[in-house]
Structure formats: C-alpha cells, structure tokens
C-alpha cells in the first residue's frame, strides 16, 4: 500500500502529540501501514457480519 507523504507526516504529528515521542518517517510509515491493514481487516469482517444478519 502506498501512503502519501502528507499522511505519514500527519501521523508523525499525531504520534508525537499522543506519546510525546518523535518517530522517524520510515517507522511512522510502517506503523501507519499496519494500522491501515488492521482497519481494513476489521471493516471487511464487520461488513461480512452485517450481510449475514
């Protein structure tokens, strides 16, 4: 998955505000990609469960 530079930089800003720790661009990109994958998996599971009901 390709993330925009602006999105990764926004994630870095949120991260430093929440945790008080600066993370590098590569680490932020990796964590954001993992988060996006979790959201994608959860959303598709929720959608499948809604269709089954």
Structure description:
The protein is an all-alpha fold and 53 residues long. 81% of the residues lie in helices and 0% in strands. The protein is built from two helices and no strands. The protein has helices spanning 5-19, 25-52. The protein is elongated. The model has no long low-confidence stretch (mean pLDDT 90).
SSE layout:
Elements: H1 5-19, H2 25-52
Helix pairs in contact: 1-2
Describe the structure in brief:
This protein has about 55 residues and is mainly alpha-helical. The protein contains two helices and no strands.
Structural class: mainly alpha
Characterize the largest beta sheet: strand count, sense, and whether it forms a barrel.
Answer: none
Q: If you compute it from the alpha carbons, what radius of gyration comes out, rounded to the nearest whole angstrom?
A: 14 Å
Helix content: over 70%
């Amino acid at each position: 998955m390709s993330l925009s530079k602006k999105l990764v930089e926004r994630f870095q800003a949120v991260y430093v505000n929440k945790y008080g720790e600066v993370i590098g661009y590569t680490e932020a990109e990796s964590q954001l990609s993992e988060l996006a994958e979790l959201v994608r998996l959860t959303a598709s599971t929720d959608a499948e469960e809604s269709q089954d009901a």
